[in-house]
Recover the amino acids of this structure.
């Protein structure tokens, strides 16, 4: 990141190859369209290129920081396109993944394997906790919107979010 | 400190981007000046990152890469015409500005980096007794086990671990650098040694006194917690 911040295009190329796949995948998960996911990924990565100096290690890994920017861009797009509901089912993505190139690079294969592993940490959550977390993170809904949507008290929604995130943290601490 | 402490539920919701705008504004105003809330948000960050990485992984279209990198090269050429040409593969070195990371990122330059260290830009490495020179760097002894040795050259913004005697890895294993200060622990770079058991790797960020740099052997990259044992450690004085 120091080199990206110094506008080194080769460093950015390395950065792109490391993180663009995860960025694009997350963007697609939020916006639900390949074209829109491309736009979100491009905008997010270029914003990093143009302001790489803002990265602060105290806020987490480069990957986490990058995905945070992608997620926010994707949610902004969702909100602009009013009337769109969040994607909560993952069914179509597996089909898309299968249709992708059969010849995966080592990096690509590693990325997918890592994603499968971290999915385990999320899938281990009870449905009610997973649902509120997914509505918030992937759908961009606030906790009060989620409470209204699920017809649950706000305190219940908050509590489920906290319990779910605590479980993910505990799973991470155990090293999966 | 600005405002009252948000409760944990609200910090969790904030980390997920799920607070209403006025609530989020309150946390944003309060947290930066509150060590407790900052710690809690930092502790939540890896769990939030897991959500982003847990989605089915797709391959971005090659055209996206071409498009983004074309824009980047064009903008770089516009702002740094004297050092970087659009679409070129070579960059004019700018000693003292680029740091070490680029050398690690570009393996082809690793040998050159070794030569540089041996020859005297390595003043960086031997500047321990001369804080007025050599770029303000200092060298910290490494406490290691299992026959591993080396040194940590501490720079202003990037430091460099130069290690030898590293064991050969298998499968997806990597050596992982960890940076600990107080109660915080973060992963830094990971690396694979060459056939002779040597490796150089950058440690990004300014390392303040008391910061401990450690290396573990991990079954795969991307771990968020170290796997014992700690193979070596170096504490910045």
């Amino acid at each position: 990141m120091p080199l990206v911040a110094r506008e080194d295009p080769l460093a950015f190329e390395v950065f792109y190859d490391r993180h663009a796949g995860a960025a694009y995948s997350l963007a697609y998960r939020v916006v639900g369209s390949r074209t829109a996911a491309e736009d979100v990924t491009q905008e997010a990565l270029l914003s990093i290129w143009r302001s790489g100096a803002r990265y602060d290690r105290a806020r987490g890994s480069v990957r986490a920081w990058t995905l945070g920017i992608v997620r926010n861009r994707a949610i902004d797009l969702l909100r602009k396109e009013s009337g769109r509901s969040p994607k909560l089912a993952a069914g179509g993505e597996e089909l898309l993944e299968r249709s992708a190139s059969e010849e995966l690079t080592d990096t690509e294969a590693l990325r997918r394997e890592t994603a499968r592993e971290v999915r385990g940490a999320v899938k281990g959550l009870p449905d009610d906790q997973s649902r509120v977390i997914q509505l918030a993170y992937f759908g961009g809904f606030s906790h009060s919107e989620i409470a209204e949507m699920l017809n649950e008290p706000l305190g219940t929604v908050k509590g489920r979010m906290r319990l779910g995130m605590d479980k993910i943290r505990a799973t991470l601490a155990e090293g999966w | 400190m600005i405002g009252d402490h948000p409760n944990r539920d609200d910090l969790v919701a904030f980390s997920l981007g799920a607070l209403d705008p006025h609530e989020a504004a309150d946390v944003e105003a309060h947290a930066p000046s509150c060590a407790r809330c900052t710690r809690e948000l930092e502790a939540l960050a890896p769990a939030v990152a897991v959500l982003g990485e847990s989605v089915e992984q797709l391959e971005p279209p090659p055209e996206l890469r071409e498009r983004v990198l074309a824009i980047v090269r064009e903008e770089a050429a516009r702002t740094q015409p004297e050092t970087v040409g659009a679409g070129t593969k070579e960059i004019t070195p700018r000693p003292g500005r680029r740091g070490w990371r680029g050398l690690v990122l570009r393996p082809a330059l690793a040998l050159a980096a070794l030569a540089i260290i041996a020859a005297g830009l390595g003043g960086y490495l031997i500047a321990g007794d001369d804080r007025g020179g050599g770029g303000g760097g200092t060298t910290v002894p490494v406490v290691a086990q299992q026959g591993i040795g080396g040194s940590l050259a501490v720079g202003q913004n990037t430091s460099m671990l130069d290690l030898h005697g590293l064991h050969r890895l298998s499968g997806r294993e990597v050596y992982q650098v960890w940076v600990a200060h107080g109660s915080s622990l973060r992963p830094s770079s990971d690396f694979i040694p060459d056939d002779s058991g040597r490796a150089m790797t950058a440690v990004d960020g300014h390392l303040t006194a008391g910061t401990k740099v450690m290396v573990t052997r991990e079954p795969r990259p991307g771990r968020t917690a170290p796997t014992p044992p700690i193979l070596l450690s170096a504490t910045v004085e």
